[in-house]
Amino acid sequence: MVLAVIGCDDPKPPAVQAGRLIETPGPGSVIGKVTFGGKAPEPAKIDNSICKHAEPIVDETVVVSPDGGLANVLVSVEGVRTPANVSKPKPVFDQKDCRFIPHVIAVRAGQPLTIKNSDVDMHNVHATPTDNPAFNVALAVQGSTKELTLDRPEVIRVRCDVHPWMTGYIGVFESDYVAVTAADGSFEIKGLPAGSYELKAWHERFGELKQTIEVKEGPAQANFAYDPPR
After folding, report:
1. 152 C-beta neighbours (distance < 10 Å), count
2. Alpha-carbon Rg of the chain, whole angstroms?
3. 155-183: per-residue pLDDT in tens?
4. Model's pTM, two decimal places?
5. CB within 8 A of 163, min separation 6: which ones?
6. CA 66 to CA 64: how far, in whole Å?
């Protein structure tokens, strides 16, 4: 059951149509890893006593594997777009165990996104984007869902007003050539035609890194390394 939707009925701005259109996937790919240099910060423990989920949870802003891999980084091929009518499974942005799962999710502009509450607790998904209409959707009942469509590329921070530690990010892109790094910092982007591309990494605390890559047949290697803040 949806209790409130704020802003979702506002007129939607037109989707941006910029960059090279890739209608036919190619034989190339990009594989790599995003790492964090230096000693990783200790994740802060969260007091989730007001949540019915009793297991301990920690802050997910900086998640670093034992070998330095940085999770939850958006890695995207810039300056390209894919057709809006490409059929793909609908991404699901869940609220489970008083966390957003996944913490960071990528969607194509205009692609339906399902937001969900898998908890017995009441949650909401509250966002104030820059380029898309703001929304605030309450999901009061376990298993309740709402479908949203975001038409303009940007990275959107969302929160749950009921449980203030709950935050997550929705990355909206013009193409499907995007990945979110896994727990070990690894990523893979498939189906690129041969050519030169700009690759961008984005992290919620550490910001952006960019590099140019040359894609041919098979995988091209591209790694990013974030230095500790000074």
Report:
1. 19
2. 18
3. 999 999 999 999 999 999 999 999 999 99
4. 0.91
5. 48, 50, 51, 98, 121, 123
6. 7
Residue type (1 letter), 142: Q
* Calpha distance 139→194 (Å, rounded): 44
pLDDT digits (tens, 9 = 90+) for 27-66: 999 999 999 998 888 889 998 888 887 688 999 999 999 9
> Do 187 and 106 touch, CB atoms closer than 8 A?
no
Q: Is the peptide bond before 102 cis (omega within 30 degrees of 0)?
A: yes
- Nearest alpha-carbon partner for 72 in 111, 27, 103, 97: 103
